[in-house]
Specification:
It is built from ten helices and no strands. With about 190 residues, it is mainly alpha-helical. The protein has two domains: about 110 residues, Serine Threonine Protein Phosphatase 5, Tetratricopeptide repeat, CATH 1.25.40; about 80 residues, no CATH class.
Length: about 190
């Protein structure tokens, strides 16, 4: 269990609140102050990594802040290899900068740690949709919903994917069902 001083906890909460309120640059400045005092402040490492991507108008792999973000996220991941949170956040950042294949691999790392993580599966489904891998996106969407039915509201793209995969006609009638899930996903257990 990590123990922080009351001042560090309060500083972190303030910085996290700035980030949540959309003031990413102010949050980054606060996280830097925390990390200057305590370079291994786990939560700050993760949050500053996320903030460094969010502050970019158009996130890019060539932006030096991206490299810095990944350095912080990797540092946090190396501190607690059984915690999927920094790896998950790195996957989201990779997706945000358009590195889809790398993001998929990163979400697989999350699932290796936490096999039933519905958000990692949902991100994989959405990335496959963005890559026009319709059937794979639908298999993953079905798996994500089985793990967390509350995700249905964020899956407005599914009907379109079903049409593009040739599963629905233009009137929304089912033409055929999604193929059986690939063996690589069976290990994810519902």
């Amino acid at each position: 269990m990590r123990k922080f001083s009351r001042k560090q906890d309060e500083s972190y909460r303030e910085a996290a609140s700035l980030l949540a309120d959309g003031m990413a640059q102010d949050a980054i400045d606060r996280f830097r102050e925390i990390l200057d005092e305590k370079p291994n402040h786990y939560s700050s490492l993760i949050a500053i990594g996320v903030a460094l991507i969010q502050v970019q108008e158009t996130p890019s792999i060539s932006d030096p802040r991206t490299e810095e973000a990944f350095r912080y996220l990797d540092q946090a991941a190396s501190m607690d290899r059984k915690n999927p949170v920094p790896i998950f956040n790195k996957g989201v950042c990779l997706r945000n900068i358009g590195m889809y294949e790398e993001a998929l691999e990163t979400f697989d790392q999350v699932l290796a740690i936490e096999k039933k993580n519905p958000l990692a599966v949902l991100h994989k489904a959405e990335i496959n949709y963005e890559l026009e891998r319709w059937e794979e996106s639908l298999v993953l969407a079905k798996l994500a919903l089985a793990r967390d039915p509350g995700l249905e509201g964020s899956m407005g793209w599914v009907r379109n994917a079903m049409k593009k995969a040739g599963l629905l006609d233009d009137d929304g009638n089912v033409i055929r069902k999604v193929k059986e899930e690939p063996s690589e996903y069976r290990s994810y257990d519902v």
